[in-house]
């Protein structure tokens, strides 16, 4: 039995939570998974809470997933997208958020292009903050749902070997995943071209491999990341085609492995680049399960944070 | 802490048997009736009643489920603790069924209100009845009364009713715990 309470008031990153917290979130997510598979997919727990989804960066999955999670917990939801707001008129982050809070918002789910935006906000405002991705720093709910999906598929995360392939340098998903999986007792390897692997990543205790086939032969689970072209201001590899040839996962590679591995992807997929269509849609892929689990895990996070009323 | 035993041994068994016979009186063969034990402690009572009914009626077809009410509580964010939920195991549709909600102790009635709310997520029951092992009389916060009662007890808020089950605690027993100071 996990602890009764989270050790933190905000979910800013995996770095700030402990193993007990993760187990509590998973146990609670199991219950919410049951809820969202019922004829009536809604519970009244957060009926007196208002949540603002503040997205300073584009998002489809995360935003929808958070919004669904909030609505299934009966919270009131306001949405805010920076592109259609006064931010473009020069308003600062604190001013924007304080204005939203003046409308009596209890919780803020924020995505921001700068690392540490969530931490900064949590120091200046009263509401609880859930980080939905800050720059190339952390994306804690994605890591939680990835680990949760592995746990669901393989029974346990402990002792499993997970390789994260692709643009590690610009990926918040990679950092959060490494921290979360290691805390749960998995072995983690990163794989990608030298230019997209941070220089000191091995200091996090992960293996580094530049040969995709070797990495896949080692692992139980492969998490394929997207090349984040929007964050790449210089050329890190000659062409997408060359990247796809070296690091793209296709059916042929998958079928030639000695064992059956699980394929994950945090989305959005660039079909034909990091993963081919036949792999993305294959039986070994749990990409859509990840999306389903995302709602349950986010419900658990919001519910557990909201229970810390003070 | 003073202890007074309300039910144990033979009397405990007789009470369960009597409740089962009362159920049979109203529901005959349980064709359209389901038993729902409320998590966490009402499930032991529901399991026992289910077992007893199956023996009396010599059938294995009586439907039974466990219902968790955590997400439907009305004291969320108003009280510490109690956020971790238990599992729901209702593998049938409630729509059009006669439902017997089963819990060990009825006190303020708030749990039962939450349970009725939680139940609706599984469909619209034809009728809902309530069975409790112990009814703490005159302490209701809501207009909720049980249809089947093991035993009624009059006690003050600071007293506690503790139900133990053979399967869990090794003994079937109900005791009333009181702080000595309040009895003076």
From TrEMBL, chain A:
InterPro entries: Asp/Orn_carbamoyltranf_P-bd (IPR006132), Asp/Orn_carbamoylTrfase (IPR006130), Asp/Orn_carbamoylTrfase_sf (IPR036901), Asp_carbamoyltransf (IPR002082), Asp_carbamoyltransf_Asp/Orn-bd (IPR006131). It comes from Pedobacter frigiditerrae. Residues 159-305 form the Aspartate/ornithine carbamoyltransferase Asp/Orn-binding domain. This is Aspartate carbamoyltransferase. Belongs to the aspartate/ornithine carbamoyltransferase superfamily. ATCase family. PROSITE patterns: CARBAMOYLTRANSFERASE (PS00097). GO terms for molecular function: amino acid binding; aspartate carbamoyltransferase activity. Gene3D superfamilies: Aspartate/ornithine carbamoyltransferase. Signal peptide: none annotated.
TrEMBL record, chain B:
Keywords: Glycosyltransferase, Transferase. InterPro entries: PRTase-like, PRTase_dom, PyrR_bifunctional. This is Bifunctional pyr operon transcriptional regulator/uracil phosphoribosyltransferase PyrR. Pfam families: Pribosyltran. Transmembrane segments: none annotated. One of its GO terms (molecular function) is uracil phosphoribosyltransferase activity. Residues 5-157 form the Phosphoribosyltransferase domain. It is an enzyme of class 2 (transferase). It comes from the Bacteria. It comes from Pedobacter polaris. Its EC number is 2.4.2.9.
């Amino acid at each position: 039995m996990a602890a009764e309470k989270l050790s933190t008031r905000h979910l800013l990153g995996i770095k700030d939570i402990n193993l007990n917290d993760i187990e509590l979130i998973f146990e609670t997510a199991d219950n919410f998974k049951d809820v969202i598979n019922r004829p009536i997919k809604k519970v009244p727990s957060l009926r007196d809470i208002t949540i603002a989804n503040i997205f300073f960066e584009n998002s489809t999955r995360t935003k929808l997933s958070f919004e669904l999670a909030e609505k299934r917990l009966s919270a009131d939801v306001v949405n805010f997208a920076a592109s259609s707001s006064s931010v473009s008129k020069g308003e600062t982050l604190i001013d924007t958020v304080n204005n939203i809070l003046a409308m009596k918002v209890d919780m803020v789910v924020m995505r921001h292009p700068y690392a540490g935006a969530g931490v900064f906000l949590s120091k200046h405002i009263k509401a609880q903050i859930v980080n939905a991705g800050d720059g190339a720093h952390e994306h804690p709910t994605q890591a939680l749902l990835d680990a949760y999906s592995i746990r669901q598929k393989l029974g346990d995360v402990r002792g499993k070997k997970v390789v994260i392939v692709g643009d590690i340098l610009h990926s918040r998903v990679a950092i959060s995943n490494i921290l979360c999986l290691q805390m749960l007792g998995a072995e983690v390897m990163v794989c990608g071209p030298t230019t997209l692997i941070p220089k000191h990543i091995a200091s996090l205790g992960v293996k580094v491999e530049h040969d995709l086939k070797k990495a896949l032969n080692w692992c139980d689970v492969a998490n394929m990341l997207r090349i984040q072209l929007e964050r790449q201001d210089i050329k890190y590899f000659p062409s997408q085609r060359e990247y796809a040839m070296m690091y793209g996962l296709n059916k042929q590679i998958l079928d030639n492995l000695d064992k059956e591995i699980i394929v994950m992807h945090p989305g959005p997929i660039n079909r034909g680049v990091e993963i081919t269509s036949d792999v993305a849609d294959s039986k070994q892929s749990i990409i859509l399960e990840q999306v389903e689990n995302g709602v349950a895990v986010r419900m658990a996070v919001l519910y557990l944070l909201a229970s810390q009323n003070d | 802490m003073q202890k007074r035993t309300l039910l144990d041994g033979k009397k405990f068994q007789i009470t369960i048997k009597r409740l089962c016979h009362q159920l049979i009186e109203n529901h005959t063969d349980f064709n359209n009736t389901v038993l729902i034990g409320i998590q966490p402690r009402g499930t032991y009572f529901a399991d026992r009643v289910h077992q007893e009914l199956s023996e009396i009626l010599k059938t294995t077809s009586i439907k039974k489920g466990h219902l968790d009410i955590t997400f439907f509580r009305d004291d969320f964010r108003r009280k510490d603790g109690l956020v971790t939920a238990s599992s729901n195991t209702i593998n049938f549709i409630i729509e059009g069924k006669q439902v017997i909600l089963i819990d060990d102790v009825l006190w303020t009635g708030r749990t039962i209100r939450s349970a009725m709310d939680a139940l609706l997520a599984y469909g619209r029951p034809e009728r809902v009845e309530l069975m409790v092992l112990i009814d703490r009389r005159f302490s209701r916060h809501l207009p909720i009364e049980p249809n089947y009662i093991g035993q009624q007890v009059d006690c003050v808020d600071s007293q506690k009713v503790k139900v133990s089950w053979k399967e869990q605690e090794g003994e079937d027993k109900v005791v009333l715990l009181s702080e000595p100071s309040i009895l003076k």
